[in-house]
Amino acid sequence: MTSLQERFFDLLDEYEWDIFSRKMLNSTQKLTNSEITQVLRTLTKSGSIVRIEKEKYRRKSFLNEYVIGNFLVPDGGFAYWTALNMHGLTEQFASVKFLQTSRASGEFITDFGETYKFVKVRREKITGYEKHGAGNHQYKITDIEKTIVDCFDLPQYSGGYSELIRAFYRAELQSNKLKDYCIAIDNISVTKRLAYLSELFQKNELYDFANFALTQVNKRYTLIDPLGNNEGTFNNRWKVRLNIPEDELILIAKSIY
């Protein structure tokens, strides 16, 4: 190992970095720009460090898929089906991990076979995250309320509408958070669906949310399942069309995995 390489690894050890960017290295002012270029090129070629994407790297031995995924999209974090699973609201696993971000949508596959799905949303929707881990090993995940709201907003990323109904039924939710996140995503249809289901499932802890939702109800009918057919009875109070009948919604909610 060369003297420059020793200095480089000493720097990583000093700052306790297992995952890092060129910008982070520059910020220490302990290596010149040319030294950083040289050592990154040499160590990437030898396999001692791994280039994740442009100017982002990890130690070869560092394989935490949550930290790596969030490092790719630091403005956002894990959400949708992945967050449902991490919160214990579904036992189904997706073949990819979903991250919410304002960067371009698309998939990213790591050198060790982990696949991330980036879901691009407006910056106003990037809120409601919990932090996990510490230091250089931190990552973010949407909290339970934001996970539920996000999945109703984009149910195609929730692992199936039946799974989402069951998750909502089982989740312990705070009314004020649900309200704040519905305001953030600005989707009246989601607010109506959640309020209707909260009454159907007698989730009394969401009484204040339901009162808020009543002030948001518009005249346009919303399908209870946005991915289903335009059919079914109409609920005038919440202006939703039940393309899944009430008795079936209750059966789905109370069914086991």
What string, H for helix and E for strand, traces the elements in order? HEHHEEHEHEEEEEHHHHHEEEH
Distance between the termini: 54 Å
Compute the average pLDDT.
Answer: 95
Cα shape:
elongated
Q: Which class of secondary structure composition applies to the elements?
A: alpha+beta
Tally the structural domains: 2
The helix content is: 40-55%
> Could you describe the largest sheet, including whether it forms a barrel?
4 strands, mixed
**Widest sheet, order of strands:** 4-5-7-6
Number of strands: 12
Radius of gyration: 22 Å
Q: Can you count the helices?
A: 11
Low-confidence stretches: none
Notes on the structure:
There is one protein chain. The protein has 2 domains: 3-62, Arc Repressor Mutant, subunit A (Orthogonal Bundle), CATH 1.10.10; 67-254, no CATH class. The chain is 43% helix and 18% strand. It is built from 11 helices and 12 strands. The strands form 4 sheets. The protein has a 4-stranded mixed beta sheet. A 3-stranded antiparallel beta sheet has the order 1-3-2. It has a 3-stranded mixed beta sheet with strand order 10-12-11, covered by helices on one side. The longest helix has 14 residues, at 33-46. The model has no long low-confidence stretch (mean pLDDT 95).
